Amino acid sequence: MSDTLHIQHEVASHGHSGEPHVHHHKETFISKYIFSMDHKMIAKQFLVTGIIWAIIGGLFSVLFRLQLGFPDQNFPILETIFGRWAEGGKIKPEFYYALTTMHGTVLIFFVLTAGLSGTFANLLIPLQVGARDMASPFMNMLSYWFFFAGSIVMISSLFTQTGPAAGGWTVYPPLSALSQASQGSKSGMDLWIIAMTLFVASQLLGGLNYISTILNMRTKGMSMTRLPLTIWALLFTAILGVLSFPVLLSGLVLLMFDRHLGTSFYLSDIYIAGQALPNEGGSAILYQHLFWFLGHPEVYIIILPTMGLVSEILAINARKPIFGYMAMIASLMAICVLAFLVWAHHMFVTGLNPFLGSVFVLLTLLIAIPSAIKVFNWITTIWRGNLRFTPAMLFAIGFVSIFISGGLTGIWLGNSTIDIHLHDTMFVIAHFHIVMGVSAFFGMFAGIYHWYPKMFGRYMNNTLGYIHFWVTLASAYLIFWPMHYQGLAGMPRRYLDKSSWASFSQFHGLDAMISVVTIIAFSVQLMFVFNYFYSMYKGRRVRSQNPWDATTLEWTTPIHPGHGNWEGEIPEVHRWAYDYGKDGRDFIPQTEPIGENESEH
Amino acid sequence: MQNFLIFAILILGFIITFQIARASEFVSVIRGEEKTRKQSNKINGALLLVFLILGLFGVYWTHHTLGDKILKIGSSASDHGRLVDNMMLYTIIATGIVFFATQILLFWYSFKYQESDKRTAYYFPHNNKLELLWTVVPAIVLTILIGFGLVYWYRITGAAPKDAMQVEITASQFKWEFRYPGKDGIFGKKYYKNIDEAHDNPLGQIWDDEANHDDIFLPAGQALHLVVNKPVKLIIGSKDVIHSVGLPHFRLKMDAVPGTPTTLWFTPIKTTKQMAEETGNSKFVYEIACDQMCGQGHTGMRGEIIVETQEEFDQWMASQKPKYAQMKENEAPAAPAAAAKDSTGTVAKDSAKVTGAKKDSTAK
Questions:
Q1: Interface with A, mutate which of B16, B19, B123 (most A CBs under 10 A)
Q2: Inter-chain contact B244–A424, Cβ cutoff 8 Å?
Q3: Quick check: B351 contacting A, CB < 8 Å?
Q4: Where are the domains of chain A?
Q5: A490: alpha, beta or left? (left if phi > 0; alpha if psi -120 to 50)
Q6: Which member of A365, A379, A523 has the closest CB to residue B142?
Q7: What pTM value is reported for the model?
Q8: Tens digit of pLDDT for each residue in B145-178?
Q9: Which of A279, A487, B28, B311 gives A425 a disulfide partner, CB atoms 3.0 to 4.6 angstroms apart?
Q10: What is the Cα–Cα distance from A10 to A23, expressed in whole angstroms?
Q11: Domain A3-13+36-267+279-580 architecture
């Protein structure tokens, strides 16, 4: 690291200009790997924590799918793992709901929010906009550690006497507010709220940092319209998070008041466990408004970053510019704005005023337009390209396929007339697992395979990558496609045993099949995790600075970039990020000045 | 032992896969990475096409095997359900076309434009006409869907007809209770603090209100009776947490929210007997499924509905005794001994059933 670089970094990290102090970093194990302020290391911390969480959350789904697929069988292994929660190898209903709640909370917040945008925003924003680090590396470090603290609190709730929260990931009161209503509404629920509070703090620290870095710390020549789409997507993600997470927090604070201070924000006219409660005049629906004001943007917080990653990966591996760059930005922006205006489509059957409902139908279906534009643009990007099927590219193509399948069923559910029938059925489960669960994972995998060389200077094993992709794609469809049919038959979600139901017991064989495929899919994910850690130490080394022949700035850094990213000056940018296949050249890096005879686009 | 074996097989399978993967890495170094890359590119390109074909077949096959298990479009048992069915039909046509078109293009292009030395990628950064086309066309299609959706939505959520039968449904962990307004057609007032399940007041009815005196109460476990082709308005409430009245055969659903009553109205158009004939299932029963996670007994929160003709309904209704009368009967002999009270209660109920049965037989 040269001294100029070092000074710039100091200014960036501490914010006080003036006399430059010249001293070199003394990196200890703790400052390098644990309390690191290097955005690249923080990205890895987010990713590894996210992977651990994903294993836990995924394992929960495998275990409760055992119960769901084979309700009349006993699995001694369940008793080994869960003890008295699964006496005799059968999961108790209250614990079944605790597992589904944790599965949802963990995967939505801890994996696909923190693990996904935490990883890629940290890794890519400074590298792709041309900055030495985040606007505030210290806040960035805090962001990770708040997330970590939230994780610890959430994990600890698994070990309480009464078990973790069990009201579903949405934790609707009064169920979540009254300890008489459910085991999971005892101390587990308090820990859930505390964990989420820490999580929201983490998201705000991170989000403000991402926004200020993108807006203020772009390198010379990097105008907003020259940014790669990853950065645009991460910018809108951060805006969504910063504006909506506080609303969730407000809802949770009121819930905490209702739980412990005797307030009646959400409680009214309740007779439970043989006792009439004094609370009158509250509204249980108020919580749903507050929750979904985050809850809906949350699904875009999950999917927008992957849209950015996929746009980038498709263009690079198709050796073609992304089609309709400006339309892609406009549609990201439209999704970002509309994301705030559709929350009540989760509440069509709560007794919502029908007129209000109709407004939300209109706004909800409007969001299909920018989504459709993105899909058509991705397909056009592939058209007449020269496709290299790296594992990242395959996952990107898989992402588009899965996103189409899940997005289209959104048109069903967003229409309140159909929602009256399909609301809270397995159709919804199929819809959102496909559109924001599986497709976000596909985008995340694509990103991990693609930027792994930048993270560790090595490649992941390709063969394992291909196996991972094909098995995951096939299982995703096998698990979730038939699930739509259960929903069309009106089968409610969160039923653990349908044998007493005349209308729903007919799907027994299907449930068993889905459970078996879930186990296969989960094992393949474990293989991916193995590949990830193994390749860190034993993977094929990256020999070229720019292994994918990409145009963006992260590939102008050394193979093992130090803290500060570039040795010497930060490169200047002269063009947009997508000059692939232009004027007969395979690619033109962003750092190359516009040639005299170059054609306009 | 069995678990151990399965575990061992999994580990073994994994090691084999891993060794093959590692070996392929070495082979690629020996043979030249570029050559290996091109070969795997061809394999994956072909697999994408295979996946498309298998996937399309899978979509057909899934529908073939599961299609008759779903509530078939057009088979709805309520008038509002018919509207929902229509809407699903229009939506499946629109989304189905888009689904097949985009998936086929995506996988076909991926296969067709796989890397080849003979081709260079076509520099095609944007095209305003195309982009306008695929903004406007979805917008038009969605407008049509929204149009139908909202017309139906207002019909379903609009005010119930004045002559609609009214029934109150009260949800609580984990049961459904029903109340009919009785001969006066008016539900008596209730207040949740009056709820006293031990003393014959599970809904918290205010006995001072005379409108309560003829209200018929059906405890958990009894089926709700509705009249075919007669509009019914459900007044839905909850005693404790949020539940949801899910009526899969009628294609309807409405949440039960404590403190905020909700309503839902529809007209059943097929009796239970007709549905039994139509589905070929002699044990056919309309079910009420709780659709909103409500605690550990959520899975078993099941209710039944019997849809019958007006005559059958009248007969059944005539056999029912108002809760107020039951309460008075139970109160009168309450003096003897508290221990005997339960048994007298059951006797009273039993005798009510007997008289009901008698009336049934006389009517026949």
A1: B123
A2: yes
A3: no
A4: 3-13+36-267+279-580
A5: left
A6: A365
A7: 0.92
A8: 999 999 999 999 999 999 999 999 999 999 999 9
A9: A487
A10: 10
A11: Up-down Bundle (1.20)
